[in-house]
Amino acid sequence: MKWLRRKSHPEFWVNYINHFKSLQTQELEKIRFVVFDTETTGLDTKNDRILSIGCIAIEDLKIKISDQLECYLNQDSFNAETVKIHGLLKEGKLSKIEEKEAVIEFLSYLKNAVLVAHHAAFDMAMINNALKRNGLPKLNNKVLDTGHLFIKTKLESGKDHYSLDELSERFNIPKHDRHTASGDAFITALLFLKLITYLKRENEIKLNDLMKSNNRIGLL
Asked: How far apart are CA 188 and CA 164, in angstroms?
């Protein structure tokens, strides 16, 4: 890869990139999906910072409870207004790590999995900006957005934005631990599997079918 020849990167990044040497399978049952969410100090992707990252894996189109990641980051930037949403205090009793350490843990966990998130563009921008601050390129993983997948079901029309709360209620998904990174990742994982089940009713689908979009709603 050209960027690898131009600039030396740390071993953890090289190890991450090495997972992409083989082509990604198209069979959904053989893909490791990582559903993730970030809690942040605000909605400004350039100036706000990640407070926590929550991830849970899906393999063979089943949630793998034993395969998950949760980390909390030290808060150099603090916005008291958002505490009522995510509940994360600047100090608190949670064990927290620096942004670089969180990046290393996330990449080591992620490998070449297909990422899944609700309104993925925001979470991807937050992660990619954290990578940039640490002198690294953007993520190399493919990304799916559950908001976009819901639109592909054609169950509704006329809107291009559906909140996680809206879709959770529509598909009868309990909203336990809502507005925590791990809680929202688990809710999104349940939503993803319900959407896949619905999309598979009509036709056999592959990964590329999920990636196709005329307007790329929610994707970077």
From this structure: 8
